[in-house]
Design brief:
single chain; 2 domains; three-stranded antiparallel sheet; 43% helix; binds zinc ion; transmembrane; transmembrane helix; DUF8054_M; membrane; DUF8054_N
Length: 264
């Protein structure tokens, strides 16, 4: 293992998540104190030094910290400002290939009219044929290289004349209109865009429909891991202001990417 394997730039530097860092340093401190109290002073000092160094170069040492630290910190009576909300990457991120915000009800009506979704009791779900095409397309795109995915996004979606790819060492992104869109999101939306086909004639509605299809995901379209619920508080690209409740989100624990934000 070399030094570059140990470092994780996606969790340090500008990308450092302060809730994760604080919680980890606290846990390292507690563990060191416990050893110290038990008269294992050499061990305590070594643990404290190693733990702090690991947090410095890796962002966090306790596995799955991004899944619990933001919630933990959100529950503490501490102002959000302490945790530096603007610690995201220097290139802005967006959760979707499309920046157009359309009314959710309109989009669902259009999808239903196109035969892409159907109601079952209180639930809505994709119709069987569309669902099968969507999952087939996601499997195909998951196997594509990042460059090929970016190229296909640019060729498929109208008015996306340039799409670039960006790999920060841990996560893969497609750069669309100068913003980063996470690879699993691109896979899901591009596949849904294909699956909706020409049944949805209006391009903006088709893109918004593809975006809405992410709510039907239960596993990561890129790596297959089951999605987990989390909260987007000042962590890993998340952002909230003190006036609004933290967003409930679905994340892939392996890609460490947000796949869906539950509407308030
Ligand atoms: Zn994943």
């Amino acid at each position: 293992m070399n030094w570059e394997d140990i470092r994780r730039p996606s969790h340090t530097g500008e990308n450092r998540c302060w809730p994760c860092t604080t919680v980890n340093l606290g846990l390292v401190g507690v563990a060191a104190l416990w050893l110290y109290r038990r008269d294992r002073r050499v061990g305590a000092v070594a643990l404290a030094a190693l733990g702090a160094a690991a947090v410095a170069v890796r962002g966090y040492v306790v596995p799955y910290t991004p899944q619990f630290a933001p919630r933990l910190v959100a529950a503490l009576p501490i102002p959000d400002e302490l945790f530096g909300k603007d610690t995201g990457p220097s290139i802005p991120e967006r959760e979707s290939l499309t920046a157009t915000e359309l009314d959710g009800t309109t989009v669902l009506d259009e999808l239903a009219a196109a035969g892409a979704i159907e109601a079952e009791g209180d639930l809505i779900r994709p119709t069987a044929a569309v669902d099968e095409t969507w999952h087939g397309e996601m499997d195909r795109l998951a196997d594509a290289s990042l460059d090929a995915l970016a190229r296909e996004a640019a060729e498929t979606i109208p008015a996306r004349d340039s799409a670039d790819s960006y790999d920060d060492g841990d996560s893969e992104w497609v750069v669309v209109d100068g913003v980063l869109v996470a690879r699993p999101v691109v896979v899901a939306e591009l596949a849904a865009y294909h699956a909706l086909g020409d049944a949805v004639a209006d391009q903006e509605v088709r893109l918004a429909g593809a975006r809405a299809f992410r709510m039907f995901l239960d596993s990561c379209p890129d790596c297959g891991s089951a999605l987990v619920e989390s909260s987007a508080v000042s962590c890993c690209g998340g952002y909230t202001d003190p006036q609004t409740a933290p967003e409930e989100i679905l994340v892939c624990p392996d890609c460490e990417q947000r796949l869906f934000t539950v509407p308030n």
